[in-house]
Automatic annotation (TrEMBL):
It comes from Kwoniella europaea PYCC6329. Belongs to the major facilitator superfamily. Monocarboxylate porter (TC 2.A.1.13) family. Keywords: Membrane, Transmembrane, Transmembrane helix. This is Major facilitator superfamily (MFS) profile domain-containing protein. PANTHER family: MONOCARBOXYLATE TRANSPORTER (PTHR11360), RIBOFLAVIN TRANSPORTER MCH5 (PTHR11360:SF177). It is a multi-pass membrane protein.
Amino acid sequence: MIASAAIEKPTTPKVAASPFAPPSMMTPPPDGGFAAWSTVAGCWMALFVQFGLCNSFGVFQAYYESNLLGHKSPSQIAWIGTLQLFILFFGGLFVGRILDSHGAHVLTVPGSFLIVLALMMTSLCKEYWQFILAQGILFGIGCSMTFHPSVSLPPQWFSKKRGMATAIAMSGSGLGGVIWPIVIRAFFDSPRIGFQWGTRAVGFISLGLLAAANALIHKRAPKRKPLPWFTMFHFFADWHFSLTIVSIAFTLFGFLVPFYYISTNALALGAPEAMAFYTLSCMNAGSTMGRLVAGFIPSLTPLLILPTSSLLCGIFILAMWIPLKNVASLLAFGVIYGMFSGIWLSAIPPCIASMSQLPEIGAKLGLTFGSASIFALVGAPIAGAIVDAHEDLSAALCGSQSVKHIVGNDGAKAGV
């Protein structure tokens, strides 16, 4: 009888594990704990370095116009900064897919090395094409390999506190945008340091911060085979996801223009050179506040925060940026625009995560930023070309003579 019962007992067939790690194979986010908050801290430090430096390109823009690249137009110089951001966002198409399958460190470690290498190479640059290669392309690749893991990992560790954790991590980029312009400008103005050693010093500081960031970051998703490309593009079948990407893309088209030209506009309005460079720090200080505010609005969902903050950014550009006539109004605009732009940027990762299953967050965020990358590339140079080609419009935008008249053809500062 025992043998018969053993024979008649039904057996459960073994089910092979899916190579793409479906969501059922992942436990719910712990919403706290050492590994989770350690990852947030590591992402904060990584974003402080790489996106903080991207937010600080306005300092390089103004310095290049006045010194190393005085023979180039503002539009041509802006291509260096927008190229690094284009590569940063476009790389998400590849980085997000690798992140979901192999974890963060396979990206963040080499990405950190490339960021430091790019800064060291930038310190040696003298020609325009050299800046394009080092500060544009190489730095952009390193940033892409660190940015996407840094914004994708907090949503994997948190559920109820997802917005707060992401906002805290994203605030690193805003605070970096406050501190880096002050530090970089102090290095450049110092007769004992200057541009070359100042840029190298930024590289050494970045090396220490990125090493600590890589030590703090913990992966959560198990290793698995990468999602097939055709599966990734099936995400566009979700019309909520597709419309969100369109919204982000069009916002990025004009999003970066104030960050790139606020310092040069301050010079055009007659601000002392030292004050002009601090306007970017004021804007990034507002952005830091906005990033933190975005995570502590419990009554609003990211899907509501995203279009609202984007609309307010557009309104403040029309109401303040175009008609501004003095430095005080420019500073006020910088803080207000920075705050709402920070809210908008911090709302993107939790917004996309709310439309995704856990193993898809990295791929969907990468697809989002990759699809919008072309708009980030061309926005600021188009704005610079418009101002450069139409002096009347330049006077209207700056409220004074154009920067082209302030900086002589030989790069010497005139009339500041």
